[in-house]
Amino acid sequence: MTRIDLHSHSSVSDGGDSPAEVIEYAVAAGIDVLALTDHDTVGGIASAAEALPPGFTLVPGMELSCAYRGSSVHLVSYLFDPDHPGLTEELRRVRSDRASRAEEMVHKLRAQGVDVTWERVLEIAGAGHEEYADANTIGRPHLARAIVEVGAARNVQDAFDRWIGSGGPAYASRYAIDPVRAVELVRAAGGVCSLAHPARAEGALNGEVPLELVERMVTAGLGGIEADHPSHNREQSRHWRGVAADLGVVVTGSSDDHGSLTGHRLGARTTAPEAFEELVAPATGVPLIRG
Asked: Exposed, middle or buried, 218 (CB in 10 Å: 0-12/13-18/19+)?
């Protein structure tokens, strides 16, 4: 049976491995179809495509950062035209604000005696000032790793809990796209999308994406809900599978792998082939890339 993983990250955003290495790990894990979905960028797709072995399929994608009433909402998006003007403009703004936000958090940390530097955060992110704006995406995990390096946290999760998580002493907010508008932008660019890990919405009152928002996203063209995710327990997965059925969208399953940062878990959750076919059927932006 074809094994499909629709959510993974490389070092172009906050993963631990290069795009080519992600493909190598996917092959070793028995994956046949993989979506590379770095945060707010498609900067790793070309490198990943060059590493495809025969018979392997790459789904060009990204994880789009959204926000709703102070909570984080993520949209895994696939097969859109990366040169679509409306989407390109929003992504440029999102990536620029990510950089400004991270630098602001560095200043806050230093003011509180945590000796991290902006230069080191950029090194960890694999991004110079110029190239970063167009390809690599900086995120809080890069900053968290810098915090761990200087001994101000035990590990990445501790850095979030102690310093840079929502409400933390070094936290700073940033620009993110409204989720309904994000769905509209992806669809206008010929892409399709699934709501990422809906039971893990940072800043939400109960930790979940509100149902009324999901309903509006479906009306705007949302095609799937990532009910099967490593952070979801059995009850949460069952609940969101039910939501997907009620709203008439497909259920996707994904590892949300970040390489060594998440224990190389590609294939930990997968998407059924029939659900994948239904999800991508309306896409007109770019084709699947086959090895």
From this structure: buried
Answer whether 144's CB lies under 8 Å from 30's CB.
no
pLDDT tens for each residue of 123-133: 888 754 333 33
| Model confidence, pTM | 0.87
Q: What does the angle CA 98 – CA 103 – CA 104 come to, to the nearest 5 degrees?
A: 95
CA distance 62 to 31: 18
The pLDDT assigned to 125 comes to: 82
Give the end-to-end CA distance of the chain in Å, rounded to a whole number.
Answer: 18
Q: Locate the domains of the chain by residue range.
A: 101-164
CA dihedral defined by 129, 130, 133, 137, rounded to 10 degrees? -50
Could you tell me the two tokens for 154?
Answer: 């035990």
115 pLDDT tier (thresholds 50, 70, 90)? very high
65 neighbors 95 (Cβ within 8 angstroms): no
CATH second-level architecture of 101-164? Orthogonal Bundle (1.10)
